[in-house]
């Protein structure tokens, strides 16, 4: 029975790696968080009630409850502009955003509206229109304003969990082909008042090669699933695992358990980076030895 589970895990990990046209190098994929989430992600794909393609055409047809967001985009944009003027759309203060920490180094910024919970107190105070709209759409599990300034980029990556789909609603964009996101090699350029939805577990990247700023409303929308037990699994993982990634905008907002631990983990990561700079052979030798030991332990138990 143990070997059945091992083989199932390997099969799911291989499926996740080969899914789509764009793939990570095998060495990177072995250590990617999506590999460890592969069995549950394959379950999400298998029972999805919407297509499992990189982009989902016409989000409003699949998710009619989202239409108030598009209908009220000018009011949402006004609140986002006000936040930018106040410099609240920004990188995290310290190491309090494990999910997006690497993005800040290349210019990306954010302001959380909600994260698998009700609105942050700061968001409810500063963005009453947007948080009010989101409160009436329970399928939106997470939302934020995100900014991609001129010259910024997000390197190729995939998100770890397939229990949601990602919605981008253009608020203040360059309206130019030079500002784009690519999902599994398919390119989309943001436009004011227009939206797109995609599966963030495909490898994707973004760039702003224009001279204008880009601000969007970014939402994670619960994936519609067949069968009540599968929906229950998705909500359990979201409530007890994904929700632990909550990150504050200001003091007084909730910080999830993962982010409370992140600063301690990052101190170790900095030491590992220092070792990599001094001795790459030793660094990668230790790294892959650790992976092999973990795999051996799993097989042994």
Automatic annotation (TrEMBL):
Aspartyl/asparaginy/proline hydroxylase domain mapped to chain residues: 71-224
Family membership noted in the UniProt record: Belongs to the aspartyl/asparaginyl beta-hydroxylase family.
Gene3D superfamilies per record: B-lactam Antibiotic, Isopenicillin N Synthase, Chain (2.60.120.330)
Record SUPFAM superfamilies: Clavaminate synthase-like (SSF51197)
The UniProt record lists the keyword Oxidoreductase: yes
Cited InterPro entries: Asp/Arg/Pro-Hydrxlase, Asp/Asn_beta-hydroxylase, IPNS-like_sf
Classification via Pfam families: Asp_Arg_Hydrox (PF05118)
Protein name as annotated: Aspartyl/asparaginyl beta-hydroxylase domain-containing protein
Keywords of the record: Dioxygenase, Oxidoreductase
